[in-house]
Automatic annotation (TrEMBL):
Cited SUPFAM superfamilies: SurE-like
Taxonomy, superkingdom: Bacteria
Role noted for this protein: Nucleotidase that shows phosphatase activity on nucleoside 5'-monophosphates.
Cofactor annotation comment: Binds 1 divalent metal cation per subunit.
Subcellular location: Cytoplasm
Residues in Survival protein SurE-like phosphatase/nucleotidase domain copies: 3-198
Protein name: 5'-nucleotidase SurE
Pfam families in alphabetical order: SurE
Organism: Litorivita pollutaquae
Protein family per UniProt: Belongs to the SurE nucleotidase family.
PANTHER family referenced in this protein's UniProt entry, alphabetically: 5'-NUCLEOTIDASE SURE, 5'_3'-NUCLEOTIDASE SURE
Length: 262
């Protein structure tokens, strides 16, 4: 098996080391793991591509490259330059430092890479590690992802219908590991993307020494559960959440309503 890995935390992020271990376990002794990751942190860039300017690509080691671009850029660089037609069997993105459950999914560069992989016709997974009081200070806060990641991905690959290979907007998977040591993880559950009520991103203003105002983006409370059975609620209850996704923003539930209105 040939696997391409990337992330949005950057080429030197500890979560990339974890996903490299997961990929190596999946690929086996005769497989290949290729890394194309952002040269610098690209958190929050979603599915951005560098359409209006070029990006530098640098080889950092054997099968290891850094690109001055977004995670989606890295997927494009990996598929069409680094691998040059030697299509990977699988794309893994992560392991993200922090969760990409609920509304976080809409901002995530980790998911942006998996989405691009799906648009390119390749099975793709975004993996993220929820942080909380029980794992934040562990020697390896990614322990849950490292221990449970490979087996979970195998199950999902085996369960994916064959017709997905010819679907226009094919599936990709948003996987979030709970904020727990690996031994305390209760299992995995499939659930929809949730919504954290009464919390959202905002800004925090600061003045520079010269008196100019700068704004920092601030996230909301990540310990607020979503609706029962949805991703963040599952994570905070001790489960790995798996959310199958597609790269279409069509509100199918609203088509008939607005069609009748017109």
């Amino acid at each position: 098996m040939r696997i391409l890995i990337t992330n949005d935390d950057g080429i030197n992020a500890p979560g990339l080391e974890i996903i490299a271990k997961i990929a190596a376990e999946l690929a086996g002794s005769k497989g290949e793991v290729w890394t194309v990751a952002p040269a610098f942190e690209q958190s929050g860039v979603a599915h951005k591509i560098s359409y209006t300017h070029p990006m530098m690509l640098a080889q950092m080691g054997e099968r290891r490259f850094a690109a001055e671009g977004s995670p989606a850029d890295c997927v494009l660089a990996g598929l069409h330059e680094v691998l040059k037609g030697h299509k990977p069997d699988l794309i893994l993105s992560g392991v993200n430092r922090g969760n990409n459950s609920a509304e976080n999914a809409m901002y995530s560069g980790t998911l942006g890479a998996a989405m691009e992989g799906a648009l390119q016709g390749i099975p793709s997974f975004a993996l993220s590690q929820y942080y909380g009081p029980k794992n934040y200070e562990l020697e390896n806060p990614f322990e849950a992802a490292e221990v449970h990641g490979a087996a979970l991905i195998r199950k999902l690959i085996d369960a994916t219908p064959a017709e997905e290979a010819i679907t226009d907007y094919r599936l990709f998977f948003n996987v979030n590991f709970p904020p727990l040591p690996a031994a305390e993880v209760k299992g995995a559950r499939v659930g929809p993307q949730g919504y954290r009520k009464h919390t959202h991103f905002g800004v925090e203003p600061h003045l520079s020494p010269s008196g100019r105002k700068f704004l920092w983006i601030r996230g909301g409370d990540q310990q607020i559960p979503t609706e029962e059975g949805s991703d963040a609620a599952l994570n905070l209850d001790g489960y790995i959440s798996v959310t199958p996704m597609r790269a279409t923003l069509t509100a199918y539930d609203a088509l008939d309503h607005f069609g009748a209105a017109l």
